[in-house]
Amino acid sequence: MTDDADPGAGAGSDDGKLAAFLAGERLDDVAIYLTHDHLDERGKIANMGEAVDEGVVLVVPGDDGRRAFAAGTGMDPMQFAKGAMDRDGVVYPDLSGGECPDAVAKPEADHRAEFVFAFGEERNEGVGGLYAEGDVMHAYAHCRCGTDYSHKWVMGEYSEEPAVEG
Ligand SMILES: [Zn+2]
Q: How many CB atoms lie within 10 A of CB 40?
């Protein structure tokens, strides 16, 4: 869609990549959702990802993902995740946004998710609880109102209820 894009980049379908990531088949990759406001001007990030409502979801190797996230948001993804992990919210199963936990208390604010960062963690019976059930998705979202929140679920068993760790 952009004039100066590398013809090789973005060619082919990324559908399979996101589906595989959501199914826990790409545990070395990370997924990033960015609304159009946070995409780089040259359209490089947009070309790497899959278009969804109001933005793009990228599934890329961890290091590339960190760079793309930092380029789009100006934040380090792990720093962001750390700040978001204390608050439970709902991130959509395809990672294309979420539901802010402050939406009910602050109905006057705009509660669109601006970006999401997600990664999978391999099943780990030693840790127990959720982690013994299967690969776990960790998803972190930033709301336009300023609230950061997180959501995790066992891949393939998406639930809007916050996971209870046992
Ligand atoms: Zn909000």
A: 12
- In angstroms, what is the span from residue 142 Cα to ligand 1's centroid? 8
In the reported structure, the alpha carbon of residue 110 is separated from the centroid of ligand 1 by a whole-number distance in angstroms of 6
pTM over 0.70: yes
In contact, 147 and 100? CB cutoff 8 Å: yes
- What is the distance between the alpha carbons of residues 61 and 47, in angstroms, rounded to a whole number? 15
- 119: nearest Cα among 14, 33, 9: 33
- How many helices and strands, by DSSP H and E, does the chain display? 5, 8
Question: Are residues 52 and 17 in contact, defined by beta-carbon separation less than 8 angstroms?
Answer: no
Gap from CA of 70 to ligand 1 centroid (Å)? 21
pLDDT in tens, 43-92: 777 777 888 878 899 999 999 899 989 988 999 999 999 999 999 999 99
Measured in angstroms, how far is the CA atom of residue 8 from the centroid of ligand 1? 38
